[in-house]
Specification:
Blueprint (H helix, E strand, L loop, with lengths): L1 H19 L7 H26 L4 H6 L3 H16 L19 H4 L1 H24 L2 H23 L9
Helix pairs in contact: 2-4, 4-6, 6-7
Length: 164
């Protein structure tokens, strides 16, 4: 069993080293993956908010999840936040994305904002691990502004208006 576990760990370590050698060039997949990551983050965020809000109907309340579900979502958000910077290689802006050119011209600022997201997601993960709705709620009250907003306000273009 230990040999299997050791092989598994070494395989993942090798995969991580191999990914580090991939050049920092953009591809259409980066934008697709980035958009999927953002949708996933948003989905987790919305689900946690619904859980915290609750519902008067016990059947509907039960469908909103459990503290364990919230912890899982918080862990997923923290994992996504850690890998966010890798999804913004140079040249991955332009058509089909709302990423502003300021991301790459102010990389240090963007990196700080992404790191802020990761730090706030870790706070949410720690609060969710307690299972205490009050602690989770306290973190969620400022999560949008302190985590998502640090990037979205400066580095994301507004949605294009649909022409009628």
């Amino acid at each position: 069993m230990r040999k299997v576990l050791r092989a598994f760990v070494l395989a993942f370590a090798g995969l991580g080293f191999g990914l580090a050698l991939v050049p920092n060039t953009a591809s259409a997949d980066d934008v697709k993956i980035r958009k999927a990551m953002m949708k996933e983050l948003s989905g987790h965020n919305k689900s946690i908010k619904k859980y915290l809000k609750g519902h008067k109907d016990p059947k509907k309340e039960a469908r909103l999840g459990s503290p364990g579900d919230v912890e899982f979502r918080a862990q997923a958000m923290a994992g996504l936040a850690k890998s966010m910077l890798a999804r913004f290689p140079k040249g991955s802006g332009g058509e089909g994305t709302r990423a502003k050119a300021e991301i790459w011209s102010d990389w240090a600022g963007f990196e700080a904002a992404a790191n802020k997201l990761a730090a706030e997601a870790k706070k949410l993960e720690a609060a969710a691990a307690t299972g205490d709705k009050a602690k989770i709620s306290a973190v969620m009250k400022t999560f949008g502004k302190n985590a998502c907003g640090t990037c979205h306000q400066k580095y994301r273009a507004p949605k294009k208006k649909k022409s009628s």
